């Protein structure tokens, strides 16, 4: 595009005087702006973070600087769709994703626990409400905090607090744990324990080694299937 014909995005005025040096490029949009609309303000650009894990502030226009500031804390970045390969290169993101997945597994315990509700445990994440709703949406602020190490530290502390309530402090939550039906040994298991595997069909929890060494179907699924089969003849007889 001929730079002399380019209209400024924000105030829709053409450049005057025909001097190309008046144009300033915004790193966020790639568009050119006059010096009235582009003051060489610096901001972290989301695309550079997502595709290159690059947090170096770049020059952006005034309008886009305000827009980026407005969107900073909003969880609008679905990393697994935009750049799933990022998880292969940024170990901290893998750790954060696991912590978030664990917290989502803990959430059902809290919403059915009177003590947890009274203690408002889930409000520990009130500044990142999306963390108790899904595990794949991020804000730019989340990614900044991942890079600095701040998010990993705070989320680990919250994870430890949540696990302590469920496994140690609350008898009601403890009672919702599982015994491995394959070996019937060891401590009570929970779906967020690092050494466990969860049946995708019935959500039963097993020791990971037991689950992958098992050559048969999930014992709980088999039991539920047999129970269903036993009920079917009774239902058929009743209908006759």
From TrEMBL:
Classification via InterPro entries: DEF8, Multihaem_cyt_sf, RH_dom
Any GO molecular function: zinc ion binding
Keywords for the protein's UniProt record, in alphabetical order: Metal-binding, Repeat, Zinc, Zinc-finger
SMART domains named in the record: DUF4206 (SM01175)
Domain Rubicon Homology, first and last residues per copy: 24-228
Domain of life according to the entry: Eukaryota
PANTHER family attached to this UniProt entry: DIFFERENTIALLY EXPRESSED IN FDCP 8 HOMOLOG, PLECKSTRIN HOMOLOGY DOMAIN CONTAINING PROTEIN
Name of the protein: Rubicon Homology domain-containing protein
């Amino acid at each position: 595009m001929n730079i002399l014909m380019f209209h400024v995005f924000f105030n829709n005025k053409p450049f005057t005087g025909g001097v190309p040096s008046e144009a300033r490029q915004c790193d966020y949009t790639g568009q050119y702006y006059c010096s009235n609309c582009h003051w060489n303000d610096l901001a972290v650009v989301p695309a550079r973070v997502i595709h290159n894990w690059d947090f170096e502030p770049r020059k952006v226009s005034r309008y886009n600087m305000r827009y980026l500031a407005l969107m900073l804390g909003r969880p609008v970045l679905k990393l697994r769709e935009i750049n799933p390969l990022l998880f292969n290169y940024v170990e901290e993101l893998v750790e954060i994703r696991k912590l978030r997945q664990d917290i989502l597994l803990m959430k059902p315990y809290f919403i059915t626990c009177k003590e947890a509700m009274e203690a408002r445990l889930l409000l520990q994440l009130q500044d990142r409400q999306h963390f108790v709703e899904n595990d794949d949406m991020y804000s730019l602020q989340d990614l900044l905090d991942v890079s600095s190490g701040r998010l990993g530290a705070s989320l680990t502390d919250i994870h430890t607090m949540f696990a302590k309530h469920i496994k140690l402090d609350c008898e009601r939550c403890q009672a919702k744990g599982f015994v491995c039906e394959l070996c019937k040994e060891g401590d009570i298991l929970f779906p967020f324990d690092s050494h466990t595997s969860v049946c995708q069909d019935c959500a039963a929890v097993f020791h990971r080694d037991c689950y992958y060494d098992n050559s048969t179907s999930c014992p709980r699924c088999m039991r539920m299937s047999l129970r269903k089969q036993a009920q079917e003849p009774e239902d058929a007889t009743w209908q006759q």
